[in-house]
Write a structure and sequence with these properties.
It is built from 2 helices and no strands. The chain has about 70 residues and is mainly α.
């Protein structure tokens, strides 16, 4: 999920930074785009690290059998 979120934030940030030429008073849309791209890059890195750790995790099930026939 975080990988998709990171890619989405990167795309939205790139659109705001490079494609939108409108202006809102008091808001720099290109700076908002750069901030979104930075957040998207962090989310992408976090998702990749989290995914790499999840694939190297091992789970073992230990079953004890007791023979109490005394």
């Amino acid at each position: 999920m975080t990988i998709g979120l990171g890619i989405g934030l990167l795309v939205i940030g790139a659109i705001l930074s490079f494609a939108v030429r409108d202006s809102i008073s008091g808001v720099d849309l290109s700076m908002v785009g750069y901030i979104l791209m930075g957040g998207g890059a962090l989310a992408l890195v976090f998702g990749l690290v989290s995914n790499a750790q999840a694939t190297t995790t091992r789970h073992e099930e230990v079953v004890e059998h007791r023979d109490d026939t005394a």
